[in-house]
């Protein structure tokens, strides 16, 4: 048994079902069920009455949650107490497109200013995945795209940059406007499984309803390379300047009503004021300041 199982049990009672609790703790309903079974084996008695269609917590389950409530709260307070110095280990998630953009500058700044802070960057790529990992306390901070709906109130959202979408065209493309370029070339899509890809697709189809996506890619480097070879045009969040210059692709602005995405640094409410989190936030804010284009 571990504390995570007890937190899951408390969440089930708060949310009213295994499925709702799974969404809060950041795991699947089957994983929640497994944790409950392990707790029942540990205590040697049932925690839920399963004789009806809706599982009902037993009196013993409520007693367990009551006993662990104060203990869990006190542990969380100890965990979130601001550190005197910036040191220790912090897990930072970063979306793919920012891993080669601002991440190197932020890590360099942290290493120079806080050499005793061990920054771990797990192999995570998607904003939704990182939000789940934050809620489950498997990540401490994440740089990601804020959902269009606003995002969970259980998290602190610090907006760092509004990244506009642009159209990328081959170096010698003849069309002058975005519409002309979309009419003249195939469309290289930005991964439609990502919220950013869906935003780009909506914009493309608002100008060319019958647009056909000839290929769909997640890697920004791959998209730029395809466009540079004349294989199509693409609407994407504005790539980093060195990448655009290296391939000599043409970047076309989408005007004053161009869509954009909100790049935000996110952490749990309970970590507000944590020195390590503040140091990471400052490093990324500085990196974005260095990366902004005139």
From TrEMBL:
InterPro entries (UniProt xref): LysR_HTH_N, LysR_subst-bd, WH-like_DNA-bd_sf, WH_DNA-bd_sf
A Pfam family it matches: HTH_1
SUPFAM superfamilies: Periplasmic binding protein-like II, Winged helix' DNA-binding domain
Domain of life: Bacteria
GO cellular component entries: protein-DNA complex
Keyword terms of this UniProt record: DNA-binding, Transcription, Transcription regulation
The keyword Chaperone is annotated on this UniProt entry: no
Keyword Magnesium: no
GO molecular function, a single term: DNA binding
HTH lysR-type domain residues: 1-58
Family: Belongs to the LysR transcriptional regulatory family.
PANTHER family in alphabetical order: HTH-TYPE TRANSCRIPTIONAL REGULATOR CYNR, TRANSCRIPTIONAL DUAL REGULATOR HCAR-RELATED
Stated name of the protein: LysR family transcriptional regulator
Organism, as annotated: Variovorax gossypii
């Amino acid at each position: 048994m571990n504390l995570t199982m007890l937190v899951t049990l408390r969440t089930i009672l708060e949310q009213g079902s295994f499925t709702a609790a799974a969404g809060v703790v950041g795991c699947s309903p089957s994983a929640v069920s497994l944790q409950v079974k392990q707790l029942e084996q540990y205590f040697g008695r049932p925690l839920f009455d399963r004789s009806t269609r809706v599982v009902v917590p037993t009196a013993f389950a409520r007693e367990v949650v009551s006993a662990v409530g104060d203990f869990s709260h006190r542990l969380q307070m100890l965990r979130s107490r601001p550190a005197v110095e910036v040191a220790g280990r912090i897990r930072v998630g970063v979306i793919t497109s920012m891993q080669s953009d601002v991440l190197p500058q932020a890590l360099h700044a942290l290493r120079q200013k806080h050499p005793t802070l061990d920054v771990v960057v797990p192999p995570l790529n998607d904003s939704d995945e990182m939000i789940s990992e934050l809620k489950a306390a498997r990540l401490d901070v994440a740089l990601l795209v804020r959902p269009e709906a606003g995002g969970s109130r259980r998290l602190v959202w610090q907006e760092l940059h509004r990244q506009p979408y642009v159209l990328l065209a081959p170096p010698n493309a003849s069309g002058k406007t975005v519409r002309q370029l979309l009419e003249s070339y195939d469309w290289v899509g930005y991964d439609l499984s990502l919220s950013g890809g869906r935003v780009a697709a909506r914009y493309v189809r608002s100008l060319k309803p019958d647009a056909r996506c000839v290929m769909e890619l997640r890697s920004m480097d791959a998209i730029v390379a395809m466009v540079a070879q004349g294989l199509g045009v693409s609407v994407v969040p504005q790539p980093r300047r060195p990448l655009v210059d290296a391939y000599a692709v043409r970047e076309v602005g989408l005007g004053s009503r161009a869509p954009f995405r909100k790049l935000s640094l996110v952490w749990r409410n309970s970590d507000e004021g944590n020195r390590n989190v503040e140091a990471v936030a400052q490093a990324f804010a500085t990196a974005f300041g260095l990366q902004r284009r005139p």
